[in-house]
Write a structure and sequence with these properties.
alpha+beta; 44% helix; globular
């Protein structure tokens, strides 16, 4: 990775930390616009950048809304090192709410059961 990208990641993480320290929720998002010449490496770079920004936060938000299958999986598994989660509902169709856990033991201690509980959304 080049130094320019690493500096960008660090500056964005610092900017988010400043807002969170003040109790201000933030929205970080990427463009939905397709750019001609976009390669898989470009897409992986965007995903990596999002993961690294969240990983470098020193103040963690009370919630993370990650829309998209790959994006939400990447943020949960790579930024927060999540191994298991409980689906507790959904905001809109296709936007689940997960309670993240980093280990099976942590999940069991917080839910007083073994394994993952998934309840139907009504």
């Amino acid at each position: 990775l080049n130094a320019k990208l690493l500096d960008y990641i660090k500056s964005k993480a610092n900017e988010i930390d400043e807002y969170l320290l003040k109790g201000i929720d933030i929205c970080m998002y990427t463009s939905r616009k397709y750019t001609s010449g976009t390669t898989i490496d470009d897409l992986n770079s965007v995903n990596y950048t999002l993961i690294e920004i969240v990983k470098q936060l020193t103040i963690h938000p009370l919630f993370v809304l990650a829309k998209g299958g790959i994006t939400s999986h990447s943020i949960a598994s790579h930024s927060y090192n999540c191994k298991q989660a409980v689906v507790v509902g959904q905001i809109e169709k296709g936007i689940p709410i997960w309670l993240l856990h980093t280990s099976a033991e942590e999940l069991d201690s917080k839910t007083n059961n073994k394994g993952i509980t998934i309840e139907p959304i009504t």
